[in-house]
Structure formats: C-alpha cells, structure tokens
Specification:
Elements (H helix, E strand, L loop, with lengths): L2 E3 L4 H18 L6 H6 L6 E6 L2 E8 L4 E6 L8 H12 L4 E5 L3 H9 L3 E12 L15 E4 L6 H11 L11 H8 L9 E5 L8 E7 L6 E9 L9 H14 L4 E7 L3 H9 L3 E10 L7
Parallel strand pairs: 4-5, 10-11
Antiparallel strand pairs: 1-2, 2-3, 3-4, 5-12, 6-11, 6-12, 7-8, 8-9, 9-10
Length: 292
C-alpha cells in the first residue's frame, strides 16, 4: 500500500533520486524530469511504496497536477505501478501522468487505467555541422549579448512569462526557479543569449542553452523565447542559430531540444534547422478528469 506524504525528509528525497537513477539506467530515459527533481525537497503530494523501509516505487505530484512516477526494475511485474497510480488518481482524479519515453509498459498501464493521451512532448536532435560556428546575421536593429547574473534576471523572467503564458511548466518559472537552475552544475551564464531591439522596457527574446554534464557531448536548446509583441518578424531562426553557434563552439557533437507536438511554428523552425525526431514523452489523463 503506497504511503502518502506531503513533505519528504531529506534522506528520503535523496533515496527517491537514487532510485530514479536506477530506473533510468534500466529504461534509458529518466522517470523524473529536472523540474520534479528540483521540487522533491519542497511540500507537495508524494506517494511512496516501501518494502523493508526502502523505496521501491514513487509518484510525485506537481502543483499543476502533473505526475511523474516509477517502479524500481527489480520490483516490477507485481502490480506496484498500478497500485501507485490508483492512489494518485484517487486523491487527484484530474491528475495528468507523464510517460517519459512512452515505453510499452507505460502505454499498457495507461490503457489499463482508462487514460487517454492529452499531450505529446517531442525530443528533436541533430548533429553539429561545420557551419554552426559561423557568425549569425541578425535582422536590422537587433543585437545579442550574454546574460549577466545580478542584472538580467527580471528582464529574462518577464520575457519568459510573456512568451510562455500558455505553457504549463515554462510559463511558471519564477525567481526561485531561476535561482534553482542557476545553482546547478550545468548552469553557464554565457549560455544564455539575450536579444535586444532598442526598446529599454523589454528584451526581444532569448536562447538559453544547456550542456549537462558540463563538457559533455550533447548540448540542449533549453529554452527559446521571443516576446509576443515581436512575433512574425523572423526572430526564431536567428535566435536558434545563436544558440547552436554557442553550443558548437563549446565542443558538443549533438544538439537536442524539447518541443510540444502541436507547436507547428516551432516544429517548422527546428526542422528548417535540421532537427529530426529522436524520442517522445507522452502525458495521459482520464477523459474530462473524471474519477474512475
């Protein structure tokens, strides 16, 4: 029977992280994403399955009722995942469950719970190419510069909030969330490229890149945002190339990114830049959020 907690003790949170890493090694995809891992030490709904006082399965519920869960490889095949998610859905009938990698076992479990696909997050990738290090020509009147800690936080958060007002995760980024990410080993201020257009009241946009682990072979287009007032001016392509140039000069051999499956303009921009589908993460929920 899963144990319900609203706050994980520090040692239990560390155990959940270690168990999630074990599941990731088995499945080839982490069951808990960055945002969920960063929030483990904070209050919220957490369901744990314990055997001999050891975590063998866990579910973490975010403030927006999105859920990530996993079962340790050695404990699978005994119905623990079904019991865990039944516990989540009993408490939160409107919960939306992530299946990272959309693995066959996750699809089967979702079908057994009567869940439908409500969202698809695609992972796109492409190799670094010789021209990626070339200088990027920006539209007339625009200039780029790196992020300066202690100076640019509010401007970055403001354009991020405007650009992702309808995005359930990215749009919720606040000063604390930014500070959490700035404290991670992979954070590099030079990897956040800001775009200015002469209007002192706002940033035109930004491209936040990521290399995790630092010095690794794979770089990430972490976030690309353009202020809504400047949509339709062809800024997405140059912003993308600015980040690709930074990552290429840092020595990565591959670049990947995450994009909503229904974001047609972004998909078109990335496909023009040579990105192709690598993986997918799928979110499931009950029809209309109804209780089972």
């Amino acid at each position: 029977m899963p144990t319900y907690l609203t706050q994980l003790p520090t040692d239990r949170a560390a155990e959940v992280r270690a168990a999630a890493e074990s599941a990731a090694r088995e499945d080839g995809v982490p069951p808990l994403s960055e945002a969920f891992l960063l929030d483990l030490d904070r209050p919220g709904d957490r369901l744990l399955t314990l055997e001999e006082d050891r975590v063998v399965a866990a579910a973490v519920v975010a403030q927006d009722e999105s859920v990530e869960a996993f079962v340790l490889p050695a404990a699978r095949g005994r119905g623990l995942g079904r019991a865990l998610l039944d516990g989540v859905l009993t408490r939160r009938p409107g919960a939306r469950l992530w299946a990272h990698g959309d693995l066959p076992a996750a699809r089967a479990l979702a079908a057994g719970l009567g869940l439908d696909v409500v969202r698809e997050l695609l992972v796109l990738s492409r190799p670094v190419e010789p021209g990626d290090t070339d200088e990027v020509t920006l539209p007339e009147g625009y200039r780029s510069r790196p992020f300066t800690p202690g100076q640019d936080e509010e401007a970055l958060l403001e354009v991020n909030a405007a650009a992702f007002a309808d995005h359930p995760e990215q749009g919720a980024l606040d000063r604390r969330g930014l500070a959490d990410r700035a404290s991670q080993p992979w954070f590099d201020p030079a990897g956040i490229i800001l775009l200015e257009d002469g209007d002192p009241s706002r940033l035109a946009g930004f491209h936040w890149t990521k290399i995790d682990p630092p010095g690794g072979e794979v770089g990430e287009v972490y976030v690309v945002g353009v202020h809504p007032q400047l949509h339709g001016r062809g800024l997405g392509g140059p912003l993308t190339r600015l980040g690709l140039a930074h990552l290429a000069r840092a020595g990565v051999s591959e670049v990947e990114l995450y994009v909503e499956g229904d974001n047609t303009p972004a998909l078109a921009t990335y496909r023009r830049a040579g990105f192709t589908r690598k993986d997918a993460h799928v979110m499931y929920a009950r029809p209309d959020g109804m209780a089972g």
